[in-house]
Amino acid sequence: MSQPLAPICVIGAGTMGRGIAQVALASGHPVCLVDPDAAQLDAARTEITARLSRKDPTAPALVEEHLATLAELTDTPADRRTVVVEAIVERLDVKQKVLRRAADHFGASCVLATNTSSLSVTAIAAGVPDPSRVVGMHFFNPVPVMKLVEVVRGLQTSDEVVEIIADLAVRWGKSVAHVRSAPGFIVNRVARAFYGESLRLVEERAATTETIDELMRSGGGFRMGPFELMDLIGNDVNFAVTQTVWASYNYDPRFSPSLIQSELVAAGRFGRKTGRGYYEYGETIERTLPPAAAVKAEAAARTTPVVLHGSDDQLETLLTRSGLGFSRKEADTPRIEFVGLGSATITRGGSAREESALRGEPVLLLDRCLDPTTATALALASTDAPLTDAVVALLDRAGVRAFPIADVPGLVVARVLSMIANEAWETAHHGIATPDDIDTAMLLGTNYPMGPFAWSARWSTRSTLELLDALWSSYHDPRYRASHALRSAALTPPPGNRG
Ligand code: NAI
Question: From ligand 1's centre to the CA of 96, what distance in Å?
């Protein structure tokens, strides 16, 4: 006969606690939900019953039978197999006190999981008699929908406890990313670059928030751009997480908060919830897409010969999509030559002005996109108007809207994604999580279109490194220092090509 499922004691019946209780119930566990606030317990029971009933008409009976809602932890059955999942207020002293009481009540062998998103699991565990029983079980909101659980190992967490919680998460239909207790774990650390680098671009007046959002969606493959996402999360919340991660990493400039965002917060422009953040919200306010560069009739009609030098998947795909005839020439540095006008090439992190000076001809830099077969918007920076007109006309034929932006190093998608990839490499380099776990976490915890390691492999670790080194040369800001792990990977010849 199989063992009955372990009882689950969820402490805290707020947004997260009720979601955790729901997934545990749906997997057949008996659940005690504990919260001193009776109104929260009532609301949680009603919400859980309603949500489970959408899929299963027998849910009310199941909830009645398996869910106990209690104001006092000590009123729950003291079963020593209990797995405790704590989802209360984000305060170290309060979490330690509650977990100590749980350990007293359920006994030394119970597992104590915390859903903390920003506190150290090691520090929480230090306040409990047996720290080896404490582990992070970091869910994402909304719990029943989001597939990821970060299983966080504190310094003293035992292997057995990590395994119990990882198995439990999988049984509850989640995917697990293992991570050592370190500020921001995986997702809240690596995602900082998505927001922070986009904010840098706005600070430098490279492009508007609307244009950056559109480029990240239609060129980068993200479901939402960084600014609309910050408005959705709440600028107050997003800014607070950035500040915590920045302070926790001893004010590393890779995480430094933006003055643009702090000013929004100071003004009370938190985003959707206050009706205004980077954008305005309201029933009568319509969001329109930012205007792309207009296609000039004479440029569309011109039949300038086009030559593809070298080989590059993005350039070749865009040419093929445009339907324009082109010839090919061997070359080390790929570019599209518009004969008599100049060349278009993909950004390597330098400015168009620098590349033009190097080449001795007008140069237009194209941003990278995630997938050149599907991209519908691209940023560009150019030194020459007729060359820009020719490229805008070509992109239009390819179904891609062109967005000329300021001549900033790395443009938009290439720059932001390289910074995300760099953070991912650094996280792996410090042994916080493996590349596979980091890719899983970013795919499922943030809905990124690809994991950062998968991007850097697609673009090549060499070009990711080249772009970061060029950013460093431009700014001499330590936030652009490339991870040593990325540098090693980029400079290591692939197996079978070692000399
Ligand atoms: P919440 O404010 O919605 O709910 C917290 C609940 O805990 C309240 O019902 C409160 O009455 C209860 N509570 C407070 N002290 C208690 C105690 N001593 N014993 C029992 N219950 C107590 O908070 P939310 O958003 O559910 O967050 C809970 C935890 O989950 C926090 O640690 C937070 O950092 C973490 N988290 C939150 C996420 C989110 O998106 N809201 C995402 C991932 C983690």
Answer: 14
Task: Print the domain residue range for 165.
Answer: 8-181
Same domain, 455 and 370: no
Residue with CA closest to ligand 1 atom 23: 14
**Mean pLDDT throughout 147-172?**
98
pLDDT tens-digit series, residues 84-96: 999 999 999 999 9
15 with 146, same domain: the answer is: yes
Please tell me whether residues 359 and 468 are part of one structural domain. no
pLDDT single digits (tens) 302-332: 888 999 999 999 999 999 999 999 999 999 9
CB 410 within 8 A of CB 352: no
CATH of the domain at 209: 1.10.1040.50
User: Which residues contact ligand 1 via a Cβ below 6 A?
Assistant: 11-17, 34-37, 40, 87-90, 94, 98, 115-117, 139, 141
Specify whether 163 is located in the same domain as 27: yes
DSSP labels, 175-217: EEEEEES-TTTTHHHHTHHHHHHHHHHHHTTSS-HHHHHHHHH
Confidence of residue 496 (pLDDT cuts 50, 70, 90): low
